[in-house]
Amino acid sequence: MLAAPTRAFLGVERSATGRAWLSRLADDRLALAIAQREGLPEIVARVLAGRGVAPEDCAAYLAPSLKTLMPDPRVVTDMEKAATRVAQAIMAGEKIAVFGDYDVDGATSSALLQRFFRAAGSELRIYIPDRIREGYGPNAPALLRLKDEGIDLVITVDCGTMAHKALGLAADAGLPSIVVDHHQAEPALPPAYALVNPNRLDDESGLGQLAAVGVAFLFVVATNRALREAGWYATRPEPDLMQWLDLVALGTICDVVPLLGLNRAFVAQGLRVMARRQNIGLAALGDVARLNGAPVPYHCGFLLGPRVNAGGRVGKADLGARLLTTEDVEEARAIAEELNVMNGERQAIEAQVLEEALTQVDERLSAARANTLPPIIIASGHGWHPGVIGIVASRLKDKYERPSLVLAFDGKGEGKGSGRSLTGVDLGRAVTAALEAGLLVNGGGHAMAAGLTLREDNLEALEAFLAKRLADDVSAASEARALKLDGALSARGATRELYELLQQAGPYGAGNAEPRFAVPSVRVVKADIVGKDHVRVILSGEDGGRIKAIAFRAATTPLGAVLMDKGSGLLHVAGRLSADDWQGRRAVQLTIEDAVPTRDAAP
To answer: Using 50, 70 and 90 to split pLDDT, how confident is the model at 1?
Structure first.
């Protein structure tokens, strides 16, 4: 392992991806203090120090515990009111339904509540709206149908904060509601009996970074306490709430909320629960997704999550929640297979829409003849499948490094839009402001993602509004786009043992960046293109060590060109270590994110 400078890492001021390389750690002394105090390798200590962990906090950080990080749920506004009402409903035998969103966060939240209700001796009806026919969030026809079914109380999860009209009509019809959500709110709240959302403007809990499933877990804890205090468990066993942390981990990772504090504890402990394969639906999904080894955030975000999502995107909206709640092994296997097929269909639809969106954006940028990109990238089309626009928006965001919004318009001139943002650019708040300005039919979200509905004749005005509102934040985010590295490794030093040590500082994800390292002065001894434009290489270091590496979706990019160019000579390469367990081996490979010929780096 090699020492690492603190700034202008390895002298790289402009790489293949056009970025400077900087050290994440500003003061090497912090890493030395951690290494000495905890007996850790310096490279691991650099990772901890680079994430703001003080030497005296390392032990607690390396073992995130719900016991120490879990707050009293009652600190969330309306939590006690909501939990008391639901506990009373369970004890009185009222018929309750949960109205959940169709994404992973909504499916896991719905499944968590149903499993808790079942364990507490009550049945819970799950209702997931159809993305195409009903759209996002509670709608009056669905709520009134639930009322006609005899439902006495509805709980919305991962939606409802902006559903003023629908919840109002339901209340007028005699169906009260409780909202359990995390999306940003306006000052005016819908007429729910209780609205549990740490992103309410009057909430002081400091828990606004939770995914909806995290809020739902706190709600379950509070309701369980209310039942216990009322003597409900005097004649029946009290459920073990920790057994459902696998659902909390899956929803938290897939909703891309910051993996810090309580979220990090949820994920760390939830992954351990997931490894036990107690949820037969998740186990079946892991089998069809060919998940090998202990689950990590990557598996949740890229293997399990997309398949849970597939039903809501291109098929049956409730399949994900059904999979996560079934106790029938054969049903679990059948649903997992169906979701796997739907995920393949989703990938094909996504590829087509992405190609059209990229062509449209590039043509617009060429016509504008601007030297800089606009603050927000917007693509729209008639007939685009609304189920894939969020994924396409994410792809545009990655390519152009700008907040991106993709809209699918129907034949009546109404469009569904989905947006993805950059760190430091609050897209959800901007969309909420656009709604308040009268530019949208509906809209909302959180910092990194948002959804909306608008009339096509308002598209130009919306683009101007968002561009003006986001310009300064996007500019600041662009200035901070340098690749931040935790240190440098030799090819020989990139070992499985180091990888395992680094996992102790995880789980990694949004807000807790996976460690990134430079591997300096390596030569590409083999390079080829595999899969969908991925560049696979073998790197050889000056120390004689070799490491397998891959650059995803890089074949047609400047990064791919550098890796495939036999005349590039020695390269500095940067990326993330990942496990390589193919055919039982326990090795590592490097996921390459950037590279630069050494001749192009400052001495």
So the answer is: very low
**pLDDT score of 600:** 77
Q: What domains are defined for the chain? A: 9-24+485-600 (2.40.50.460), 72-340 (3.90.1640.30), 370-479 (3.10.310.30)
Nearest to 274 by CA among 259, 257, 252: 252
Read off the tokens for 368.
């504008």
Identity (one letter) of the amino acid at 184? Q
Q: What is the pTM of this model?
A: 0.87
Cβ atoms of residues 179 and 199 within 8 Å: no
How far apart CA 329 and CA 175 sit, in angstroms, is 35
State the pairing for strand pair 587-597/449-455.
unpaired
Q: What is the 3-state secondary structure (H, E, C) of 424-478?
A: CCCHHHHHHHHHHCCCCCEEEEECCEEEEEEEHHHHHHHHHHHHHHHHHHHHHHH
449: how many CB neighbours lie within 10 A of its CB? Answer: 22
Between 510 and 163, the more confident residue is: 163
Count CB neighbours of 399 within 10 A: 17
Residue 482 pLDDT greater than 90, yes or no: no
